[in-house]
Amino acid sequence: MHQAKVARAAGISRIMLAHQVLDSTALTWAAAELARDASFEFSWFVDSVEGVQAAAEAGRDHLSRNGFPVILDVGYFGGRTGVRTAPQARALAGAISATEGVCLVGVNGYEGGLTNVDGVRSFFAKVRTVVEDLAASGLLPAAPIVTACGSAYFDLVASDLGDQWANQQGATVILRSGSSITHDNGVYEHKTAYSRIAREGNLQLALQIWVQILSAPELGLALAGMGKRDAPIDEGMPIPLAIRHSGSSDVVDIRGHATVPKMDDQHCYVHLADGLPVRPGDLVCFGISHPCTAFDRWRVIPIVNASDTVVDVVRTYF
Known about the structure:
Blueprint: H1 2-9, E1 14-20, H2 24-36, E2 41-46, H3 49-62, E3 68-74, H4 86-97, E4 102-109, H5 117-136, E5 145-149, H6 154-161, H7 163-169, E6 172-176, H8 187-191, E7 208-218, E8 221-224, E9 239-244, E10 252-253, E11 258-263, E12 268-272, E13 283-287, E14 300-304, E15 310-315
Parallel strand pairs: 1-2, 2-3, 3-4, 4-5, 5-6
Antiparallel strand pairs: 7-8, 7-13, 8-12, 9-10, 9-13, 11-12, 14-15
Helix pairs in contact: 2-3, 4-5, 5-6, 6-7
């Protein structure tokens, strides 16, 4: 909800929060914003009666409109949030329909934790079944929202939930890919839909970390001034991409000639192959794996142009 408040303060008029909200203080804030500004659109997910009741209580107390708009969250066994079966989805949708202060506006499915295309397509088939069942039962509006996310299978969201099926349902399909700004040199580089659809080209990294070499204590090893506090490691270590030797303006590609086996809090171990010369004071450019957990490590991020000149800064509010 903190991020929703930041977005609202920045003037965003349409927010979908991909969580179930149970905090009464947060719900009171949301109700006040919706009551204050008739043009503000705000929805979030529910997958339990508890979530429906929490939203309904705040909606009844603070809203003069139809109540809080909520999206029914559909999941899969062993996955993240969401009801697990179509009967559970219908039961929860029925509870929403029977509860004053809350209204159902759509269905969500999160496929990002699945590991292959077949699994994603099977899951989206379940999402379609839920949407069709709820629509036939009169539990969805005439123009429902159908939303899915993940940065690896956005092509399948378009093909399996969009196009002809969405038109038949009168649905608005909303894609929520987290890595739409930066991409990476790691997990999403290998999982991206562009690797399945070569004719579309590819995505390029837009987030780099330039780090000074602090020490080169032995052959084949250098220590860079970057650690767990500076770069994400949850989906793989940073990837050395290039080097600019101290005193030179030339940038040399070192991909495939250096690796990062581990990082301490503030030190990065760089293993060097093929006698690659690296000395203290050199600058190494690293790509990162999993951009979603990179932004919260930096309060200010420089923006550079094609010649690596800083032209702007972006502040983060995580």
